[in-house]
Amino acid sequence: MAAARAALGFPSPAEDFQEDSLDLNELLVRNPAATFLYRAEGSSMIEAGIWGSPRFQCNK
To answer: 21-54 as b/e, with b when 16 or more CB fall inside 10 Å?
Structure first.
């Protein structure tokens, strides 16, 4: 018995619109040695619209 691969079906029309993946480090971090990520906790910023456990980026 021999094994072989065969392409079946048809390609997705969305393949024409594929983009490269996003690298958030490339977009957001200018100086890796001076960039820190924090998770906020508490309720002091609810009135400012910041609730839950958001993540913040801080640059030194």
So the answer is: eeeeeeeeeeeeeeeeeeeeeeeeeeeeeeeeee
Residues of the chain short of pLDDT 70, as ranges, are 1-3
Domain ranges of the chain: 23-59
CA angle 32-33-38, nearest 5°? 75
Q: Which residue has the tokens 């924090």?
A: 38
> What does pTM read for this prediction?
0.48
Cβ proximity of 37 and 60 under 8 Å:
no
